[in-house]
Amino acid sequence: MSKSDALRLIAEDTDDLQVISAAVQDSVSQVGNLSFKSRQHRFTLELNRFRWEEGAEKERVRALLAVDSVLGVRVRGLPQDDPEIVISVLQLRFEPGDVPPGGTLYILLAGDGEIALDVEALDVTLLDSQQTWPTRSAPDHERRRR
After folding, report:
1. What pLDDT is recorded for position 137?
2. What ranges do the domains of the chain cover?
3. What pLDDT score was predicted for residue 31?
């Protein structure tokens, strides 16, 4: 992956967030890679992201998903006692709150897990690193189990 291939995305509205959500779909991580710094109002998640971009090789890239202006974090269906538990991101979704531009950013996880971030405003960044590695197969949502 060349430096120009690395994603550097910012979302400040729901249209922007859809782009980041598509990019992080099927990313995997571990519970230990979740971090909330309350004094900085920042939530981060280190991801191994599948490169869905058109023309990309079948590979994963180490990436950072950062959310700023975070007032609080709630977690549902995610055991936090083992930092090595693997999580898989399905989607990012924003629900506006009573006082715009605030609301709740949901990180939906496979297995019915969810991370809810109460935010003053939507401020999400996705940054790829230069660390990539090939993978034999792409995530397949159409494959039927028999």
Report:
1. 83
2. 3-131
3. 96
